[in-house]
Amino acid sequence: MSQKESRELFTQFVLEHKESVYRLAYSYVKNEQDALDIVQDSIYKGLKSLKSIQKQPSMKSWFYRIVVNTSLDFLRKNKRIQLVGDEWLEIHASVVDMDIHNLDLEQAYEHLPIKYREVVGFRFFDDLKLEEIAAVLDLSVNTIKTRLYRALEMLRINLEEGEIEHE
């Protein structure tokens, strides 16, 4: 694929997925302007590294990884967090406010630990494949499968037992 074709494909991808990309950035920084800056920086980084897309299984997982890394870099640079590896992701990362119409399901989802909420969000709201989620989060596919299974089990139990308090 030529450089021009790669650039056109990337541009089309960004235009089609701009809302998802913004939501992903926002889920890390929780600020509209910062999220927009991250999206802009991510697009620039993506354009600069279009050659590496040929080594990736999917443009979506490749670009989401750029957005996640740019978000983490932004947070480090602005000293809003102190990174402690996976613990940081469990405490601070989240999937943005989703358009979930069922209040009980929404509350059950919000009560999931971050590492499970993240996987559920990528799988069902962003429609990523397990391999793509693994690439975005830099985890093994088996870890993603385990987290997804446990998250769905927690949701099922919470919904069946009605343990979610209505606020």
Automatic annotation (TrEMBL):
CDD domains: Sigma70_r4 (cd06171). InterPro entries: RNA_pol_sigma-70-like, RNA_pol_sigma-70_dom, RNA_pol_sigma70_r2, RNA_pol_sigma70_r4_t2, RNA_pol_sigma_r2, RNA_pol_sigma_r3/r4-like, WH-like_DNA-bd_sf. Signal peptide: none annotated. Residues 14-80 form the RNA polymerase sigma-70 region domain. Residues 104-155 form the RNA polymerase sigma factor 70 region 4 type domain. It comes from the Bacteria. It holds the Pfam family Sigma70_r4_2. GO terms for biological process: DNA-templated transcription initiation. One of its GO terms (molecular function) is sigma factor activity. Keywords: Sigma factor, Transcription, Transcription regulation. Belongs to the sigma-70 factor family. ECF subfamily. PANTHER family: RNA POLYMERASE ECF-TYPE SIGMA FACTO, RNA POLYMERASE SIGMA FACTOR SIGV. This is RNA polymerase sigma factor. It comes from Fredinandcohnia quinoae.
